[in-house]
Specification:
single chain; alpha/beta; Rossmann fold; 3 domains; 27 strands; about 30% helix
């Protein structure tokens, strides 16, 4: 704690006292059922309160039936939400944290798919993602929306919340009114900044009247929408001054970007530097005396402490960091910062999963979102099995961790010389370097459980029985499969290599050479290979049968930043093309949309193709009558989150195979 004197100093926000400056800011979870908060919410927020967060801000609660942009939204306008509110707040208050409900109306940044009602907006300007023209809100519509804010704010306080936050930033009807890009009105709600802010100020006044002087009231503002004619930092500073001068507001929270047009800037991936958005709270804090919350991929207590010590903000929003490790705050306070499970900012299970309409999870923390299920079962001590885990990639490491926690006696064996499997080399690319934090985190957890991996031991089929285990877990990963069209061709001088072989230990290609990357996967394998090559000064052609190169990078919000970097390095993209052959110095393609032909001369062909499971040890064990489980890529080649989840499930799966000893 001595090293984090700013982070763990108390602060008073309005009349609400916080024990520290760590905020678990608002973010979507998709845990709602029938529009109502439930046990998953209460347990999820309680885990972060118990873990030491000073302030928790819930995901948004809709204030009006016309706002239903995604299926699993909390409908705060429903009276039936009250019991769920009370369950959440009582769970959080059992510990030291305070909790604020974020309330919102998304306005034109939504869909009528669920509500069957027109969207409301300041003007008939469609959002670029949803592409639905909103109804220009009348004064009557706006009065109804303001009343909805009053109603839900009062209900939140009745439900035990310590305050409310108005989401006026990246996805909100208020944001749409504030922004010149979407507000083209000529009445009192348009024009200059004061006119465009009228709706926000009316809501602030109405909500303060509804909740009284005691509860905290915060407003979240976007400091830079990063779109043409959008809200700027100067606008945000002026709005903060306006809110302070008119009274009623107790703190300012901050954001960057628009949740659709520039979403990649809001929940930035590991390709974006930590603290990238701190210039916004820094500027606002210089202009007002209200406490200001800073955000922007702050993933560890040292970064948070520096943000506070540097005067950039008064409180620090740390969302993904506390999804990955709910105990981040308490570990920091107790001098155990090295034990924190660091967030990767990979966005696969949090941002990406929610974007696919599934409940929020975490690639590193398989318990995220499942806290309500309670502690997992354990093996009964007299019959706890001896388990050999073969392979120390993310699946094998997680299996060893979970099995040891469940009471099994675990040996972890790895043919190579280090942990991490494919992640160890995937992190070689600068924009993906933080992937190796997963390796670091699993290494720390293995060490804390007393598990010392045995490196450099290749287990052959005939050696399985010599392990002396009651069961084995096969986590031996996958292998590349070369397609027939890329087989050796006579006097070929063009080198052919897989993307992961290139990343692991591939040849250094001389600057000025030409490489073709052929990608059928659509995720980071091919794009990372491209980045590694252009950093060597290699000219890169990126070919894919998909209609968009690296299309799945959109799920993790990496697509825009990758294309920006690729453009800066002159990468040429060829989409909708299927490779048909590789000659001595060239690769041939045909376009599956129009039948056109393409031939590219190259010094190197890099193949990013689907792998096949390496499960020979599993098959040998089964044929020898040894209880065995295969997980991760050894079961089916997928992404890292699947490997970690299956490793986490290993105790229960093995218990079923062993038939007993499970309590």
């Amino acid at each position: 704690m001595a090293g984090f004197k700013h982070l763990f100093s108390p602060i008073t926000v309005g009349r609400m006292r916080l024990e520290n400056r760590i905020v678990f800011s608002a973010h979507l979870t998709n845990y709602a059922a029938d529009g109502l908060p439930g046990p998953a919410h209460a347990a999820y927020y309680e885990a972060r309160s118990k873990g030491g967060a000073g302030l928790i801000i819930t995901e948004e609660h809709s204030v009006h039936p016309s706002d239903w942009p995604y299926e699993k939204m909390i409908h705060g306008f429903k009276p039936e939400a009250l019991p769920g509110y009370r369950a959440i707040t009582s769970a959080v208050h059992r510990h030291s944290a305070r909790i604020v409900a974020q309330i919102n109306h998304n306005g034109p940044q939504g869909s009528s798919m669920y509500s069957r009602l027109p969207l409301l907006g300041p003007s008939q300007v469609p959002d670029p993602l949803f592409r639905e023209v909103p109804k220009e809100a009348t004064s009557g519509d706006l009065a109804e929306v303001v009343s909805g804010y009053q109603l839900v704010a009062a209900r939140a306080i009745e439900g035990g919340f310590d305050g409310v936050e108005l989401q006026c930033s990246h996805s909100s009807i208020v944001r749409a009114f504030l922004s010149p890009a979407s507000n083209h009105r000529g009445d009192a709600y348009g024009g200059d900044l004061r006119g465009r802010s009228r709706l926000m100020r009316e809501i602030v006044t109405a909500v303060r009247e509804a909740i009284g002087p005691g509860p905290a009231l915060g407003v979240r503002l976007s400091g830079d929408e990063m779109i043409d004619d959008g809200t700027t930092l100067d606008d945000a500073v002026a709005l903060a001054r306006m809110l302070e001068s008119e009274g009623g507001v107790d703190y300012i929270n901050t954001s960057i970007g628009v949740a659709t047009a520039s979403l990649y800037s809001i929940e930035a991936s590991m390709a974006i530097s930590p603290g990238y958005a701190l210039f916004i709270p820094s500027a606002i804090r210089k202009a007002v005396n209200l406490p200001v919350v800073g955000v922007g991929r702050i993933k560890d207590p040292l970064q948070a402490e520096k943000a506070l010590a540097g005067g950039h903000c008064d409180l620090v929003g740390m969302v993904r960091a506390q999804i990955a490790d709910p105990e981040l705050a308490s570990k920091s306070r107790l001098g155990r910062a090295r034990d924190i499970r660091l967030c990767l900012s990979c966005n696969q299970e949090c941002v990406g999963r929610v974007g696919m309409n599934r409940w929020l999870g975490c690639i590193e923390n398989p318990s995220a979102g499942k806290e309500y299920l309670g502690r997992p079962p354990r093996f009964s001590r007299p019959s706890a099995p001896r388990v050999a885990v073969i392979g120390a990639g993310p699946a094998g490491c997680q299996a060893a961790i979970s099995l040891a926690r469940a009471g099994a006696m675990v040996a972890l064996v790895e043919a190579g010389e280090r942990l991490g499997g494919q992640l160890a080399w995937a992190g070689r690319v600068a924009s993906r370097a933080e992937l190796t934090d997963l390796v670091r985190n699993q290494r720390n957890e293995l060490s804390s459980l007393g598990i010392e991996p045995e490196f450099g031991r290749l287990i052959r089929a005939e050696e399985i029985a010599l392990l002396g285990a009651d069961a084995i877990v096969v986590a031996t990963g996958s292998r590349d499969v070369a397609p027939g069209w890329a087989a050796d061709a006579g006097e070929r001088t063009m080198r052919v290599i897989s993307a992961r072989a290139l990343m692991a230990n591939g040849p250094r290609i001389p600057a000025g050479a030409t490489a073709v990357i052929y990608d059928e996967v659509g995720f980071h394998q091919g794009t990372s290979a491209a980045e590694l090559l252009w950093e060597m000064g290699v000219k890169v052609h990126f070919a894919t049968p998909l209609l968009v190169a690296g299309q799945d990078l959109g799920i993790t919000l990496d697509y825009e930043s990758f294309r920006m970097r690729a453009a800066a390095h002159g990468v040429q993209f060829h989409t909708a093309v299927i490779a048909s052959g590789a000659g001595a110095r060239s690769v041939s393609f045909f376009n599956h949309l129009d039948g056109g032909q393409l031939e590219i001369e190259a010094d190197l062909l890099v193949l990013s193709l689907h792998a096949t499971a390496e499960d020979s040890l599993f098959r040998a064990a089964r044929s020898g009558g040894i209880p065995a489980l295969r997980i991760g890529d050894a079961l089916s080649p997928r992404r890292a989150h699947a490997a970690v989840i299956e490793g986490d499930r290993a105790p229960g799966l093995l218990a079923g195979i062993l038939k007993g000893g499970w309590s």
